[in-house]
Specification:
Length: 265
Amino acid sequence: MVTFYSHIVNFILALQPQISKPQMNHMLTFMHGIILTDGRINVPQIRRSTSENRDLSCMTRFLNESLWCPNRVTRRRLQFVMNHIQKSRSETGDTRPIVFFIVDDTQCKKDCTTKRMEGLDNHYYHSDGKTIWSHCVVTAHVVSENNSFAWDFRSYFQKLYCQKEGISFKSKNDLTIELINSYPVSDDDQVYVLVDSWYTSKKLIETCYQKGFHPIGGLRTNRKIYPAGVGIKISDLASTYIESTDLRPVTVNVILIKFIRMKAI
């Protein structure tokens, strides 16, 4: 198992998370177990999948009692990603590479019997078109040159759950802005932030501009914009001022999009 997933072991060692050898063994066991376990994943299943001989309580104590800082591990992982992007830039000779910072949310569906698990709630799942019992996670992904990295994530909790647990409520838009702010500003990068239409807001756009990033996201037709300082709905702008000749197709990685020439405004 360790030989087959040696690249994962090497990655963890490269991060230098500053944890003890027993803690490192536990961390690798959990990572391997998550990969090897089919179906429902829990600590007993991970233990069985990895053929661990140690007592189950040893693994649960690592999660509940062991003194190690997950934030430190995260910081080292993010720094590893940035170093890799910078290294790729120097190898290709590109002085200002394009970086795509992609934000989206996903649902981790759970069985309805898992009522005691923390953070579970009924969330709308766009793929199924209905509400499901799940964890909701807002994630960020970084794509640069030929590299693709998972950046970070934030758990989304609904207002009633936050009130019950005594924690501050943060909308998905707030969590998206946190993720954007977590990406360091660099004069050497051209960063484009890609979001779905329900994330596109004044606050998000201003956050991107303050960091020197370029936001790309859909806008609902009932949104109001202010070209030349004059307020107008997007639907009215499209029907009144934009002609078919103002649009031209652009093919990017076999994705057909429409590019609006702003001179029409």
